[in-house]
Amino acid sequence: MIPKQEEIIVGLDIGSTKVCAVAGRLIRNNDHARLDVLGVGKAVSKGVTKGSVVNIGQTVEAINRAVEEAAGQANIDIHVVNVSFSGQNVTARRQHGSITRTSPGDEVVADDIDHLVGDMYRSVLPAGAEIVHVLPMDFTVDSESNIDYPVGRIGVKLEADFQVITAQTSSASYTRKCIQRSRSVSSQKEPLENDKFLLAPLASALAVLTDEEKHAGVALVDIGGGTTEIAIYHKNVLRHVAVVPYAGNSLTADLEIGCRVLPTQAELLKTKFGSADPSDFRLNEVVAVPNLSGRPPKDILLKNVALVIEARLKEIAAMVQAEIIRSGYRDKLVGGVVLTGGTASISGIERIFERVTGLDVRIGFPDQLEHNVKADLVSDPAFATAVGLVWAGFKRLDDRIPLQHAVLHPVSGNGHLGSGPGYGGNGNNGKEPVKGKEKEKSGGRILKWFQNFLNDDIGKELGPDDRYNQ
């Protein structure tokens, strides 16, 4: 039986090595929820470098292939997607905000948090930057600090520390243009629409981290193709975000130089024979690699391949360790480190990160999936972001944020904010997701005022060469 299309969420992960689309719906069994994967599409990504789109045409072509494949498997129309965003230009800064309540004798209500979060979106930014996420950490009501959730408390002054995540406007604009120029499966003439715009490691966290780990303290390390992204949680709150500009493609480049082979052969060496532990191979264990035309194959020692991979992963692990220390949560990560992303599948990577960080390490696989053939396809660290984008249609990044701000993201190319979960289709010719309409009604005047403000201010395209340096 084909599910109702308004129940389907589509996640689109635009990565440096692949573009992946996953369509899924939520299945509830009593209090337990699982994701039913309906369709998976994947295409080689040639237009993205270090997480940022550099060639719109090539990226659009990959998006179209991935979305069409997922739509065909799920037997649905796709015109709205949740989109990942990453890149070395993504930065995060801690910022303090406060408001004085007009009704100090009354209890703090959700609208007060809404007001406080809205003020953060009005922050003055460096030229060429825009806000992607505003996530609260700890609240203060009058003199009482370190409050997890202030609603219900009585006080005059409401304050909070926030993680304000920003991206370079030009880079975000490239991603939005790719979505606008991609074809909707429901109508080849209509462009795709992006609903939610999520930072990739935050999406991955929805797919691979448990609530217990987030509360105990955990560092999610998403090692993709172009960048390694770090998201640190403690007491269920995002505490630190960082991006390291080295990842799986760096390993491939090292093998290309160290083993003196072509880039495609270096990638095959990494994916088929790659290991981070040289002791896995004997000294005389070799693999024959095709050489240039007219020349005999070249024998490559697998121990040398492992030595090259080990050296680069040690460097990446050291950079991750430096960010963990810089966050100030090094001694609070009871949950240790969770590695995900395509590079996390390399044998022996856990031991390297355990030695460098001194923390417990596990590999993060997308879980809580309904067992079927398509779920087996995405039960791999490489699909963590795409699966997390589907979960983003059913979960909030932070349950403490009022609904109208929980769905906000940067202004899209047509100057309007998206709202509501991203659905695969809803029978209205791809014009607007059904639940998006419902949330627009429930947002009321506050959301309309906020949309107008962003359209007039933050949505302006600023200088492309400036970026925030932490």
Q: What would you say about this model in short?
A:
The chain has 470 residues and is of the alpha+beta class.
How would you describe this structure in keywords?
disordered C terminus; alpha+beta; Cell_div_FtsA; disordered N terminus; five-stranded mixed beta sheet; 470 residues; Nucleotidyltransferase, domain 5
What does this structure look like?
It comes from Larkinella knui. It is found in: Cell membrane. Self-interacts. Interacts with FtsZ. It is a peripheral membrane protein. With 470 residues, this protein is of the alpha+beta class. The chain has a domain of 64 residues: ATPase, nucleotide binding domain (Nucleotidyltransferase, domain 5, 2-Layer Sandwich). The chain is built from 13 helices and 18 strands. It has a five-stranded mixed β-sheet. The N terminus and C terminus are likely disordered.
The stretches of 5 or more residues where confidence is low (pLDDT under 50) are 1-5, 407-470
**Structural class based on helices, strands and sheet pairing:** alpha+beta
Mean pLDDT: 83
Strand order, largest beta sheet: 3-2-1-6-11
Main pleated-sheet profile: 5 strands, mixed
Q: Briefly, what CATH class of the domain at 248-311?
A: Alpha Beta
Q: What is the CATH homologous superfamily assignment of the domain at 248-311?
A: ATPase, nucleotide binding domain
Beta-strand level of the residues, as a percent range?
A: 25-35%
| Total of helices | 13
Fold-level CATH name of the domain at 248-311: Nucleotidyltransferase, domain 5
Shape: globular
> At CATH's second level, what is the architecture of the domain at 248-311?
2-Layer Sandwich
What is the tally of beta strands?
18
Radius of gyration over alpha carbons? 23 Å
- Tell me the helix content: 25-40%
Terminal Cα separation, in Å?
51 Å
